[in-house]
Amino acid sequence: MRGKTEAITRGALADFLRQRRDALSPEVVGLRAGLRRRAPGLRRDEVARLANMSTTYYERLEQGRGPQPSAAILGGLARALRLDPDERAYLHLLAGHAEPVVAAPAAAVDPRLLSVMRAMAATFPAFVTDDLGTVAAQNELYTRLFGRVAGRPRREGNLFWGWFASGRLRRSVLNPPEHQESIGRNFVAYLRVVVAKRGYDVAAAALVADLCAASEEFLRMWDEHRVSSSPFPVLSVLDDRVGRLDFEGALMVNSRLGQRLYSLHAVTGTPTQQRLTALIVGSSAR
């Protein structure tokens, strides 16, 4: 069954490459159309040259006989064939790779995530980070509870740094030590997955190296090599104005930009939501 699935995927990849090659005119990539072309699209040798690979290797991919292409090979093909983000993601999927992350311009946050985050301001603390945990935006309720994090210099605006290195995120945490250990381990396991999806690139490697150097706890947990797709267990914090707040996290992801919207929701059966409402009303009255 597995062999049949692989054959179907190879066939789909081969057909996708052929279709995209046939649809791309030479003029778009800076080549002359000429008078001796049998079809309007590019020739295989032209795609291979643009993608910086041998013609033989590319021909094998179009015939469904080549080895699994690497992420670097796929990047070259995406550039050569002028693929848009959806087509690039689909190419990686057919080749058995994770969808590539497209870095957002500095200070650019997905407007849809921003809209949802702001709409939560009357009920839930929420914030947006990049895939490595650097906070890019936060709503008013999050700011009232935890202060301004977005825009802090260097690593100070990073979620993982705030937990393991500076300790800023742990100062008001009420969870017992063993539960904090579990929260930290979950953070590290989640970061493991993110770093792997990024292909251990320079930015990801630098963050991990800095965290390992700054925190023995992080280093110990990193060496355990656990993985998790969910970063947030239940978190309890103490607010001087309204008392104990118990949260469970929810997550929305823009996988193409690598941005995450985290929201903290009141645990059912606790007075957290009423206390958040009191905090909002009290702040509005001042």
Automatic annotation (TrEMBL):
Task: Give the source lineage, highest ranks first.
Answer: Bacteria, Bacillati, Actinomycetota, Actinomycetes, Pseudonocardiales
| Domain HTH cro/C1-type, residue spans | 37-88
> What is an example of a Pfam family matching this protein?
MLTR_LBD
- Write down the CDD domains for this protein, in alphabetical order: HTH_XRE
Q: Which PANTHER family match?
A: BLL4672 PROTEIN, BLL4672 PROTEIN-RELATED
Report TM segments: none
* The protein's name: Helix-turn-helix protein
One GO MF annotation is:
DNA binding
